[in-house]
Write a structure and sequence with these properties.
Layout lengths: L1 E7 L2 E4 L6 E3 L3 E5 L6 E3 L14 E3 L5 E3 L9 E6 L7 H7 L4 E4 L7 H16 L4 H23 L6 H7 L1 H12 L7 H7 L4 H12 L3 H19 L4 H7 L5 H12 L3 H7 L8
Helix pairs in contact: 2-3, 4-5, 4-7, 6-7
Length: 276
């Protein structure tokens, strides 16, 4: 994901298939789906490909780019973010092409404007520890943007987000997330939600978009994939951690879900990226 913070001036963010978004000083914009996009001074302006631009490497995590033709100045922080948690697949898939917050004006989100100003100062001076400060604060800002979208947008009123916020379904989903290896059945999940088995099954499928036991199976496998890529546990250990009775059944289920056996998927995983 790309996360842009405008600290001076303004620009336009363009993504194919969406209306251009004007970003003012204090705007935060998250492009969550890895889509190519343009940052330009005016809509429709031809953009120079990013990798064709001269970059000044400051540190391994921090680069400075200066570009332009003498027009009005716009300064941005551009951050790369990747979610590795098992929930990320559903979370990111549910988000719109662009999330935007304008925070510099103050009001109830004065802390947000103060945080942006603090990040801007750190980026200008890059004092000792500045990279770590920017990284951690950027992580917080991304989380707050997603929270804001969940709380304010109608698109978050259905599907997985709606299920998480539902008093009964949310209780069952939280139980799955906390204890993926438990011997869950449809009946035990319904009990956790304080619902009858039939009512729970019907409501879960209606709201989430798939049956509860299918959700459980997918969650276990997504979690297993994260564990495999981040650690060195054996396949048997991973299978046990996510609730499979045998390594063989785990490997079969994993291959059905992801198209590769778990050992090969682990070897094919991309090298770890910087958080931001």
């Amino acid at each position: 994901m790309m996360f842009h913070i405008v600290t001076a001036g303004h620009c336009w963010l363009e993504i194919d298939g969406s209306e251009p978004v004007r970003l003012e000083r204090g705007s935060l914009a998250l492009v969550p789906h890895g889509q190519g996009h343009h940052l330009v001074d005016e809509p429709g302006r031809k953009a120079v490909p990013f990798f064709d631009l001269p970059i000044e490497r400051i540190t391994e995590r921090y680069e400075r780019l200066t570009w332009g033709g003498g027009g009005a100045t716009c300064r941005l922080l551009c951050v790369v973010v990747r979610f590795d948690h098992a929930a990320a697949e559903r979370l990111v898939a549910a988000l719109p092409p662009v999330l935007q917050i304008d925070a510099w004006a103050g009001g109830d989100d004065r802390w947000l404007a103060d945080t942006l100003q603090f990040i801007a100062r750190e980026a200008e001076t890059l004092r000792p520890g500045g990279e770590t400060v920017i990284t951690r604060l950027a992580d917080i800002l991304v989380i707050q943007m997603i929270r804001h979208w969940i709380e304010t947008e109608a698109d978050a009123e259905s599907g997985w987000f709606a299920a998480l916020r539902d008093e009964q379904l949310g209780r069952a989903i939280a139980a799955i997330h906390r204890k993926p290896a438990a011997h869950w059945t449809l009946a035990s999940l319904a009990n956790t939600a304080f619902m009858s088995r039939s009512a729970f099954a019907a409501r879960f499928t209606e709201v989430v978009g798939e049956p509860a036991m299918r959700y459980l199976a997918r969650w276990r496998l997504q979690l297993a994939r994260t564990i495999l890529r981040e650690g060195d546990d054996t396949l048997g250990m991973v299978a046990e951690r996510v609730g499979y009775g045998s390594e063989a059944s785990f490997c079969r289920a994993f291959k059905r879900e992801f198209g590769l056996p778990p050992g090969k998927d682990r070897r094919a995983a991309p090298a770890p990226m910087l958080a931001s």
